[in-house]
Amino acid sequence: MPKFSRLTAAFAAAVVAIFVMFQPAVAQQTFRPTDQSVKEQQLLDALKPGGTVSGRVSIPDQRSANLIQPEGRDWQDFRRGPLATTGAIAILGMILLLAIFLVVRGRIRVEHGFSGRTVTRFASFDRFVHWVTASCFIILALSGLNITFGKALIAPLLGENAFASLSAAGKFAHNYLAFPFMAGVVLMFLIWVKDNIPNKLDLDWIKAGGGILKKGVHPPSKRFNAGQKGIFWIVVIGGALMSISGWHLLFPSESIGELQFQSRLHGVVAMLFIAVMIAHIYIGSIGMEGAFDAMGTGEVDENWAREHHSLWLEEERKKAGKAPTGAVAAE
Amino acid sequence: MARMKFLCDADRCIECNACVTACKNEHDVPWGINRRRVVTINDGKPGERSVSMACMHCTDAPCAAVCPVNCFYTTADAVVLHNKDTCIGCGYCFYACPFGAPQYPKLASFGSRGKMDKCTYCAGGPEADLSQAEYIKYGANRLAEGKLPICAEMCSTKALLAGDGAIIAEIYKERVMKRGYGSGAWGWKTAYKETIAI
User: Fold this and answer.
1) Which residues of B touch A168 (CB under 8 A)?
2) pLDDT tens-digit map of B23-54
3) 3 state SS of A318
4) Measured on CA atoms in the order B178, B179, B180, B186, is the torsion positive or negative?
5) Segments forming the whole domain that contains residue A254
6) Is B148's Cβ below 8 Å from some Cβ in A?
7) Is this model's pTM higher than 0.80 or not?
């Protein structure tokens, strides 16, 4: 069978040729399957700030696809450093300033004494909205401060377990009272915004230092003076920032970097907000005689109103059909 | 005492997810929580690589630093554990953790979280070793039985190593020398601020 043997010879020659061609190459090559695969340092070097080294996971929780997020360290440093420092300086600084002010200026009195006649400053609905928001704010502020400073200040006093129970209750209250607080901020905006639009009168008020610094100086003001307008807008804008960032933290759906940003924002705005509110509480209580009545009973003394909100008092009297009075015209 | 660490030799990991499954089984980890997972980078592309990751039991752990109630503690073996009785589920450790280790069972109301759960290095929690209470909250305590974490112990390719940092680093070094290449100890720079010099 010459045909068969010719085929066999050709096949054998081919096999030999293949071996001759590839044998040395196979001997030289080492099998290095993942040698050229991506390396950790490459990925870390390529990271943008706040980025994560991520891939694919076969389990349902897709958040676990983040392998490494170095940003966590920065967030941790921010909480321990700048946030705590900002908070301590803002809050203690404000208390110190107010204490100095109280010592130097004393309580701002109603200079002409109480007249005994009152005028309605805040209707019951205004006061209801104010106090709902205010009481929520106080609990939110205290439970929030506890998260940042409690470990250092309160835990040593209570012990770890009691402190943990307190903090758990605080977190619970913080999560739930956030909602009436947000509603309160919206309502306050709606009912008071019309009297809080800045105008030229505010410049004069600011130029006169609000009459705060010197006795006997009472720059004219409508329903709200520039200082109160400032508080209003701080509450509205600060409240909005707190609400939005808090909402993100309450219903976490974003990337870890987004949550870290929202938490930083929430913390910093909260510290400044609390400092401003301490000043607001001061001037509305011990800082100024007759001021608390506005939110207490809703009725303020006419002399207080004349000294602090002269134009508003005139408007109110006009509405009530009374002639402008000159009870303190001697001024 | 040892300085316990995890080391994933990513050149050996075949993404079988057995570590994930073994961990869930060993500790009766609830639905939705995975104390360990395998992440595949560049999946389906050239340069693909899988890494098994869990809590790395960091040096100067960020979770412990940000915890508002001090629920974390480090054992004599340098394992970072936490106390579920004091945890308030605030989520801060999740924000701070470079490895996404802390997880929370979802509670009914809003996004509120239950007590945090994470890898315990198979070392239980603050309860008495091998007690029922410890098992229910934290899972098995293999370290108390003289065993290493189950994920590393049953790894089919021995990609995942657990044990004293110096010893597993030595094993890894030998492998790299013999093999001629290695992608390094993933996460070590972030967790321990050191790498394995070869």
Assistant:
1) 88-89
2) 999 999 988 899 999 999 999 998 899 999 99
3) helix
4) negative
5) 76-319
6) no
7) yes
